[in-house]
């Protein structure tokens, strides 16, 4: 892979604490009841462990909300704003339950990349797997001694791990500055490795892992780019883009009910709609825009007169991402809950596709994005997945490990993969929004 300019030597030591959505998350199994209470602006630092038995909740919604869908089509998978009068609930906590949605989401492990991934995601996947599967060089030669110490002085380090030494005719001053940046990055990774080990051995909370390990790794990856890390633990999906579910879950024997629901994706047999309300995801990589940048200014103009639920380029009106297109959502777990994390990422991304469908409907000359990368982190391990829009359904393609924080070589590979994702966001992902909003 091409050499990546070393990031700033300053590792953020005070990444914002991961604020949890509600203190009641630890005890209350019904998100519908929690949803009635406004979220406070601050959260306790202590992170409760995720309860895999806590359900995602479906709220009944009135048929009258169909009037607010505007130009959105049934293929968007978007839903209706939940009402407080009708509160029928049903759990959606398994990946199987996602098949009952009006726009089903199917989980698939990777098997045939060429068949499973659209062209742009396949290209991105290939660049990632050059690093993870083909083990292209990612470790600077300055880190050789540190890796040798880590694995033992009598073990041979594979030569293909290491980048070539800089033999350019750059000035001595520039070479020294580049070497200093590499050593600073190595020191940052060594510190993150120690902290991750402490979090593992001392049963660190999810908040601790996220604040002290995950966020700092992502900050290293985005340093010097036009991509920014944002904590989105309080970013709700706007009701306009929430997914809906049919009146029957998988395994139901009511064929006629399922058939009726499939013909009317937003409406159940009794004239209402079941709206999926989920926990939010934790972190996001977004384009670093604001009202003073060309793209941020164009977004601000586009959403200026929009209804309340549409005052954002994304599926959430949370202020930090209103003007910043969101390219990679990241869900974190201190301990393994792979299925729960995938469900959260799937529903969050389904809402993103619904929002993009509404944007594209305003300018039909621009095609829909066909895929989006997402990341699930459990303890030391990081996994990349791709959510792909097939029109009538979404496929969640998982099974792409991208490194971790147990050893330095895994951290260097992870950092290289994250930088590939950052580069993709700052080029092809940004290009989609520039074209959509007529930015030259």
Task: Summarize it.
InterPro entries: PDDEXK_12. Residues 172-430 form the PD-(D/E)XK nuclease-like domain. The chain is α+β, with helices and mostly antiparallel strands and 440 residues long.
Verbal overview:
The strands form two sheets. A seven-stranded mixed beta sheet has the order 2-10-9-8-7-6-3, with helices on both faces. A three-stranded antiparallel beta sheet has the order 1-5-4, with no helix packed on it. The protein has 440 residues and is an alpha+beta fold. Helix 3 runs antiparallel to helix 10 and helix 5 packs antiparallel against helix 6. It has a domain of 296 residues. The longest helix has 30 residues. The protein is built from ten helices and ten strands. Helix content is 34%, strand content 14%.
Strand content: 5-15%
Mean pLDDT: 79
Query: Helix/strand/pairing class, anyone?
Result: alpha+beta
**Basic shape:** globular
**Helix residue percentage:** 25-40%
Query: Strands of the biggest beta sheet: in what spatial order?
Result: 2-10-9-8-7-6-3
N-to-C series of helices and strands: HEEHHHHHEEHEEHEHEEEH
Features:
34% helix; 3-stranded antiparallel β-sheet; single chain; PDDEXK_12; 440 residues; disordered N terminus; 7-stranded mixed β-sheet; 10 strands; alpha+beta; PD-(D/E)XK nuclease-like domain-containing protein
């Amino acid at each position: 892979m091409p050499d990546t300019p070393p990031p700033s030597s300053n590792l953020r030591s005070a990444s914002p604490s991961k604020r949890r959505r509600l203190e009641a998350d630890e005890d209350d199994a019904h998100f519908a009841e929690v949803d009635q209470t406004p979220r406070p602006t601050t959260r306790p630092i202590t992170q409760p462990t995720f309860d895999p038995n806590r359900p995602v909740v479906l709220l009944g919604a009135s048929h009258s909300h169909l009037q607010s869908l505007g130009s959105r089509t049934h293929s968007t998978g978007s839903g209706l704003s939940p009402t407080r009068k009708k509160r029928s609930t049903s759990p959606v906590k398994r990946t199987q339950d996602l098949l009952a949605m009006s726009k089903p989401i199917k989980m698939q492990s990777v098997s045939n990349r060429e068949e499973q991934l659209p062209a742009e995601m396949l290209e991105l996947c290939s660049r990632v797997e050059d690093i993870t599967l083909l083990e292209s060089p990612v470790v600077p030669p300055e880190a050789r001694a540190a890796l040798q110490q880590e694995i033992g002085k009598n073990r041979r380090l594979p030569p293909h791990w290491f980048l070539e030494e800089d033999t350019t005719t750059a000035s001595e001053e520039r070479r020294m500055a580049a070497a200093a940046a590499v050593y600073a990055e190595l020191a940052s990774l060594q510190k993150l490795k120690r902290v991750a080990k402490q979090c593992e051995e001392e049963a660190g909370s999810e908040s601790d892992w996220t604040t002290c390990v995950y966020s700092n790794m992502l900050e290293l990856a985005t340093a010097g780019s036009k991509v920014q890390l944002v904590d989105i633990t309080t970013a709700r999906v706007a009701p306009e883009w929430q997914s809906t579910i049919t009146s029957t879950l998988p395994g139901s024997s009511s064929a006629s009910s399922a058939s009726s629901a499939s013909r009317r994706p937003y409406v159940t047999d009794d004239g209402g709609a079941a709206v999926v309300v989920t926990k939010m995801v934790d972190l996001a990589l977004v384009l670093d825009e604001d009202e003073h940048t060309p793209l941020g200014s164009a977004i601000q103009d586009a959403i200026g007169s929009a209804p309340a639920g549409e005052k954002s380029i994304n599926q959430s009106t949370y202020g930090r991402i209103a003007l910043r297109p969101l390219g990679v959502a990241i869900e974190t777990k201190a301990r393994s809950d792979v299925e729960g994390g995938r469900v959260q990422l799937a529903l969050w991304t389904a809402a993103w596709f619904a929002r993009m469908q509404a944007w594209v409907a305003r300018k039909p000359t621009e095609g829909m994005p066909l895929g989006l990368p997402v990341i699930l982190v459990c303890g030391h391990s990081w996994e990349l997945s791709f959510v792909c829009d097939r029109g009538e359904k979404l496929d969640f393609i998982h099974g792409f490990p991208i490194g971790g924080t147990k050893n330095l070589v895994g951290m260097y590979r992870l950092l290289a993969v994250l930088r590939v994702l950052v580069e993709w966001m700052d080029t092809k992902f940004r290009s989609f929004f520039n074209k959509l909003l007529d930015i030259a």
